[in-house]
Design brief:
Elements (H helix, E strand, L loop, with lengths): L2 H23 L11 E4 L5 E2 L2 E2 L11 E4 L4 E2 L4 E4 L9 E5 L9 E9 L10 E6 L5 E5 L2 E5 L5 E4 L8 E9 L9 E4 L2 E2 L3 E4 L14 E4 L12 E9 L5 H12 L4 E5 L5 E3 L4 E7 L4 E6 L2 E2 L6 E2 L4 E6 L5 E10 L6 E2 L3 E6 L7
Parallel strand pairs: 20-28
Antiparallel strand pairs: 1-18, 2-3, 3-4, 4-7, 5-6, 6-18, 7-17, 8-13, 8-18, 9-10, 9-17, 10-11, 11-12, 12-16, 13-14, 14-15, 19-21, 21-25, 22-23, 22-24, 22-26, 26-27, 26-28
């Protein structure tokens, strides 16, 4: 090999390495930004009236819990006003002053919102101490509020009674509603004005970064009712990829396994047999026999990690059953094959 060829290859390798280093440092391979405040509900993090901050703001960002708000081991969460808003439970903290020119803040909450929503049992999720700019829940839905009884956001249909990861991108005036975003379980949603009148000029952040969780800033009203397992705040807009990564880190890895509720590996021809799919993360389950969809067992929404299929075996002998689960933010996952031997009905050949 000539000396000039060696030099060219060496230069190319150096350029390639520099590109890889740049790609990593520029964020394509790097982890997402560290949150300013980060609260995780555990027995060690919630002690007395203090919820320890694991974000970059350190102990300055520790939450102060009011009116006996505490960690609940049975649900691994902090339950805000589970008995009604008469308890007046809320939390108070600070993320420090926003950086100069900041026009976006991302609020992330892993919460279980009660199935019954109204002014007395839903209320505020997050509110700046000043001005009147917050995240509010009512029967119409959940979204951004600017003191005009407004909710610019999404319906809560299908999102109550179980845990979901919400990401809210709050943007400042005069950017308008178009720049605000809401993600649920890593998926961006389409927003609309659900009620009230938007006060655009109120869209700004507290100059010192003070905020409430579960309380309206300007009065002792609209206490929030929800279970909170995790809360984070960034003084920037997270990218869709970063939001999805956060969701995946919370929910773990999707999986699906099969069995009969009878606990057996046999069934009877033309007699209803219940197949049970156990999933790692709730999603939509499709059941198959010999690679074909089982009628009535298509797009079954799992609940609590379980989905059922009522199957009427139509073929005697070995039947091969599989299932596929599709979870927001993940590729579909297929189960291992479940072999079921179907026998004729008693006293018949079929």
């Amino acid at each position: 090999m000539r000396a000039d060829q060696t030099l060219r290859k060496g230069v190319a390798a150096a350029i390639g390495l520099s590109f890889l280093v740049f790609t990593y440092l520029s964020g394509a391979w790097a982890a997402g930004p560290a949150p300013i405040v980060s609260y995780t509900a555990t027995a060690t993090k919630v002690s007395g009236p203090t919820w320890t901050n694991d974000g970059s703001n350190g102990s300055t960002g520790n939450l102060i819990l009011y009116n006996s708000l505490a960690y609940g081991a049975s649900d691994s969460s902090v339950a805000f006003n589970p008995s009604g808003t008469g308890s007046q439970q809320y939390a108070y903290g600070t993320a420090g002053a926003p950086p100069g020119g900041d026009t976006a803040t991302t609020i992330e909450a892993y919460i279980n919102i009660p199935s019954s929503l109204n002014n007395g049992t839903a209320g505020m999720l997050f509110s700046w101490v000043t001005p009147d700019y917050d995240i509010w829940m009512q029967s119409a839905g959940i979204g951004f509020n600017t003191g005009g009884s407004d909710i610019y956001g999404i319906s809560l249909s299908g999102l109550t009674g179980s845990y979901h990861l919400f990401d809210f991108v709050m943007t400042t005036y005069p950017s308008g509603d178009a720049t605000q975003k809401i993600y649920v379980d890593g998926v961006q949603k389409t927003l609309s004005l659900l009620q009230g009148t938007v006060n655009e000029s109120y869209k700004s952040f507290d100059s010192s970064g003070y905020f409430y969780i579960g309380k309206y800033y300007s009065s002792q009203t609209f206490y929030g009712s929800f279970n909170l397992r995790q809360f984070k705040l960034w003084y920037q807009e997270l990218t869709p990829a970063q939001v999805l990564t956060n969701y995946q880190s919370i929910t773990g890895t999707p999986s699906v396994s099969l069995g009969l509720t009878s606990g057996l590996a046999t069934a009877t021809y033309r007699q209803s047999t219940q197949i049970k799919a156990t999933v790692g993360i709730d999603g939509t389950v499709v059941f198959y026999r010999a690679g074909k969809k089982i009628p009535g067992c298509v797009s079954v929404q799992s609940s609590g990690g379980i989905a059922y299929c009522s199957w009427l075996p139509a073929s005697i002998g070995l039947n091969q059953i599989t299932a596929q689960v599709t979870t927001p933010g993940f590729a579909p996952v297929v189960s291992s094959q479940l072999n079921i031997v179907v026998a004729p009905r008693s006293g018949t050949k079929r």
